[in-house]
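INTERNAL TRANSFER SHEET
From: sequence group
To: structure group
Subject: Thioredoxin domain-containing protein

Please process the attached sequence and return the structure record in the designated field. Keep the field labels unchanged so the import script can parse them.
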Amino acid sequence: MPLRHRTPHQEDEHVAKSRAPRPNPSRTPAQKRPSGAAGSTGSRPSSATSSGPRAPQSKAGRQSVAAARNSGGSNRTQLMIGGVAIVVIVAVIIVGLVLNKKNTAVPADGYGDSKASIATVADGVITISAGTPQTSIDVFEDAMCPACGSFEHQFGQQMAQLADEGKLGVRLHMLNFLNRASSSGDYSTRGAAALLAVATEAGSQPGLFLKFHTALFAEGTQPKENSGSDLSNAQLGEVAKTAGVPDAVVASIAAGKYVEAAAANAKTSQTAIQAAVGEQWATPTVLHDNKPLALNSPDWLTTLTA
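Return from structure group:
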């Protein structure tokens, strides 16, 4: 389009229009931003906290809670089982102690040494009694045997009392199979020889033989198996002297006067015990009417002589 030149009047109007003040672009009150709109200087309202029902837990969460509950129950069960086990163990220990005390009780404890029994020797067997006994037993021992020492400690006083009362006769068979456990190699035989000497030479003195027999098996006197030491014949004589054995008999013991006889008697005793119980025998063994008695109850002798 070709340019048109304004007329002066038109030019004046144009200039006037260009110089006329422009309207204010400010918004009308209706156009102002509402309070709280974006960009306002006021703070935004905080979002409300939901008070509605919680969202359901996940499967893993439920399993974790269940596991925790089960763990608590399992711990309580284990504690209960542990408590019961402790009670049972304590009960077993108490019962064991009671039974052990009963089985190791000493019948006639306090009676002391025999007062009336005498000892005689026949066919290598030493018989102890006071008159004619109501019943008799055969006792097999070895001077080195620790179980024989325990047997003497537990039942020696009762046998002495029953012998004194005429209720019991004891036929003593001495063995020597534990020579091998003595340092001298023949203590069992020499111990048996000392008993044989007292029974042969002083057995008529009331109570003397059983008193020496008790002393020979006493703790502190009886040698221990494989200990490296035992008693010489002279020391055996000293034990006899302390028990009240006459000096002449003490001299026989110290001289080993009855050692050979004791060795021969031990062979006879071994034959007798094997005939009664077979090849598997031990000491002490007690026979009644040629049958072995059970010695695991402290009442066996009381029952036998009742």
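Handover comment: The domain at 118-304 is CATH 3.40.30.10 (Glutaredoxin). Confidence is low (pLDDT under 50) at residues 1-53.
Transfer complete.
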